[in-house]
Design goal:
Layout (H helix, E strand, L loop, with lengths): L1 H19 L2 H7 L1 H31 L4 H12 L4
Helix pairs in contact: 2-3, 3-4
Protein name: MFS transporter
Length: 81
């Protein structure tokens, strides 16, 4: 009888630990989610570095107006309101 009670308590504590796991722990535990999170981080970093350079290319090399480049930058970044 004691082993049955111990098994139930063990199952309850496992369920409680799973419920208390954070999203970061769950993401880091899975290789698929971990890889996807790193890929999204690097993608965001790359876009953030490239967006100002595209606006600079439009103005300096292609002869576009600064207004058009600013509009392009704001619409690509999504921070214009």
């Amino acid at each position: 009888m004691d082993s049955l009670t111990t098994d139930r308590r063990s199952a309850e504590t496992t369920d409680q630990l799973a419920a208390r796991s954070s999203a970061l722990r769950l993401t880091w535990a899975s290789p698929l989610y971990r890889g996807a999170a790193v890929a999204m981080l690097l993608s965001g970093l790359g876009f953030s570095a490239a967006a100002p350079q595209i606006a600079s290319l439009l103005v300096h090399d292609l002869g576009g107006s600064l207004t058009a480049a600013g509009l392009f930058y704001c619409s690509r970044v999504g921070k214009c309101r």
